[in-house]
Amino acid sequence: MYTSDKLLLIRSKMEIQGIQACIIPYGDQHLSEYPAEHWKTRDWICGFTGSAGTLVITAHEAGLWTDSRYFLQAESQLDTSCVQLYKEGMPDVPEYAEWLAHVLEPGDKVGINGVLFSVSQVRKLVKTLRDHRIQSDLKFTLAEECWDTRPPIPEDSVFEHDDNFCGQTRAAKLEAIRKYMRKQKISHYIVSMLDEVAWVLNLRGTDVPYNPVFHSFLIIEHDQVRFFIDPHKLTAGIARKLDTDNIKVSLYDDFYQHVQDISSEARFLIDPDRTNYTIFATMSQAAQKVEERSIVSVLKARKTKKEIGNFRATLINDGVAMVQFLKWLEDHVGSGTITELSAAKQLKSFRAKQPGFSGESFSTISGYKGHGAIVHYSVNKDSDIELQPEGLFLIDSGGQYPGGTTDITRTVALGDFPEQAAVDYTLVLKGHIALATAIFPAGTRGVHLDPLARKAMWKFGINYGHGTGHGIGYFLNVHEGPQSIRPQDNGVELEPGMITSNEPGIYRTGEYGIRIENLILCKEKIETEFGSFMEFETLTLCPIDTKLIKKELLTVEEAEWLNNYHKMVYDKLAPMLDEEHKTWLKSKTTAI
């Protein structure tokens, strides 16, 4: 079916049910950033596959709202004859709720599926619509019902995260959670985010590509835990171990009924940003609801000493793979047919040889020349192009290992490049170094540090549309909250043990994209009469291309940081390399 045919089918059913508009987000009932195919209704309808974007359908119009990371991708994937692109954050572009308030009439009804929206999202949306006397149907499932070829929820088995790598036992994690519950007098804590369930139970799965998670829910009480999952996903051995920790297994499909049956005297803890609205609506109205940031998200973000140690070892292995790839790329571009796809495949093959590698942490962004300017470019057979010994190549990739999840971006010159590219590259590097060397007081949030990465480029009237840093999981999701470094304030302080990306960039449409990304660890720096101060330790180990650097734009201190970083890269990776790769790495880490 074409997009137009799918829209016609949905609209016909909307008319029968008295719905004048519907909103279809990207995600699942666990509010995952990357859902399984079963949940990709939006993609099925309009063809857009980006990980951020909301489709809105009315009787006569349809629009997709997405942010600057996906403008170019949306323009290429959407049938703009029947779906209009609304560029979020651009001047005069309304939010979709405001747009609906403008195009609908008082008394009209908007349908959404409450399991796909957080409590916070629903509250904001319903208020905006109610202010314009527009009604809401929060049990709208027509779009999913129209998808007759919808894939089933995956039935892959769950596996244990090896005890040698886990930062804490299940019992220790549950005790930390219950300690907080006792303090807040909480009787029931619902955990619905897939990575949070996996972290608590020290289990992993393969239900979602690139993310080692599995479909399930947890309800943590003081004397037991109820684990909602399809039982056939568990081995007998895992089931026995769970039972030892008083974790009772129930059917995945029984979760909502169980929530409904919980006593009205219960006192729930929920995170309104990380819990879907239907869960909230299913709870007894008489029950108390304490709304706070997820306990698990905070505990999970503060990596333990054991996890940090394993992360360091993992990044040595990942760095070896990156060195092997970058040397291979330099040796073969121009002497054979290398494309964006084949380059990504080759990098994966180098990672696959590293200890514990269990897969990529996301689909590699392999962008040559103008494709590098598409922030979340997804190369496929139709878009794939050959790399030539000229211009810039951006590759953003990562791996999943028992000792950590990796995420790294390097931009390299494959030959001659424009003068402007050298200026842009150096400005990105300056921003990267400014964040890497930041020293800041306890209580600092990501929004306070974000300008450091942009200051150098702002002087030239240059900016980028994405955040500067995101948290990263420990053999879990490559994007992990609650911390971030971005212009928007999420109220989360950076704390010791948090690992975040450092990835400023510059993108020139149709020409090139530049991004330099390392992982950085927040740690204590110094205690003075003015309080505690923090700093970052750069964990990622991989050379930064010095051919693109315009040295006169660097300060003495910035050049010193780069030279020290490269010395660390060589010292830690060289013992893992053969002589050929060691010699190559020495040349790439020579002081400037």
Notable characteristics:
single chain; 592 residues; alpha+beta; Creatine Amidinohydrolase, Chain A, domain 1; Creatine Amidinohydrolase; 3 domains; 6-stranded mixed β-sheet; 18 helices; 35% helix; globular
Outline the secondary-structure elements.
Layout: H1 3-17, E1 21-24, H2 41-46, E2 54-58, E3 62-66, H3 71-77, E4 84-87, H4 96-103, E5 109-112, H5 119-131, E6 135-137, H6 142-146, E7 159-160, H7 170-184, E8 188-191, H8 194-201, E9 203-204, E10 217-220, E11 225-228, H9 236-244, E12 247-250, H10 255-261, E13 267-270, H11 277-282, E14 288-291, H12 295-301, H13 305-332, H14 340-352, E15 359-360, E16 365-368, E17 392-397, E18 399-401, E19 404-405, E20 408-413, H15 419-436, E21 439-441, H16 446-458, E22 469-471, E23 480-485, E24 499-502, E25 505-508, E26 512-515, E27 518-528, E28 531-538, H17 556-573, H18 579-588
Parallel strand pairs: 1-5, 3-4, 5-6, 8-13, 11-12, 13-14
Antiparallel strand pairs: 1-2, 2-3, 7-9, 8-10, 10-11, 15-18, 16-17, 17-20, 18-19, 21-28, 22-23, 24-27, 25-26, 27-28
Specify the CATH homologous superfamily of the largest domain: Creatinase/methionine aminopeptidase superfamily
Helix content percent band: 25-40%
Kindly name the structural category: alpha+beta
Query: How many domains comprise the coordinates?
Result: 3
Question: How many DSSP E strands?
Answer: 28
Mean pLDDT: 96
What is the overall shape?
globular
Looking at the overall shape, the CATH architecture of the largest domain is Alpha-Beta Complex
CATH level 1 class label of the largest domain = Alpha Beta
**Cα end-to-end separation:** 57 Å
Number of helices: 18
* Main sheet: strand order: 4-3-2-1-5-6
CATH-defined topology of the largest domain:
Creatine Amidinohydrolase
Q: Give a short account of the largest sheet.
A: 6 strands, mixed
